[in-house]
Write a structure and sequence with these properties.
By secondary structure, the protein is mainly alpha-helical. It has one domain. It is built from 2 helices and no strands. The longest helix has 50 residues. The N and C termini lie far apart (69 Å).
């Protein structure tokens, strides 16, 4: 079971408001990191498809040259 914000605030010598702000900031940071990770994965997927398309074009050109 997670400790309550008031208990954590006292243990970290923060006010309850500061503890709430701290937790919200951490949550926002995690959300932003997840969004960034998702965007990077999507870009990586698009890049992989693009590389595949280029490889297919190169293969067709080589066949045509033969």
């Amino acid at each position: 079971m997670r400790p309550r914000p008031a208990e954590v605030a006292m243990a970290n010598l923060r006010s309850l408001n500061d503890e709430i702000i701290h937790r919200l900031a951490q949550s926002l940071e995690r959300d932003e990191m997840q969004k960034l990770s998702d965007r990077l994965k999507a870009q990586g997927d698009r890049l992989a498809r693009f590389e595949g398309d280029i490889a297919a074009i190169v293969a067709q050109l080589r066949l045509r040259d033969d």
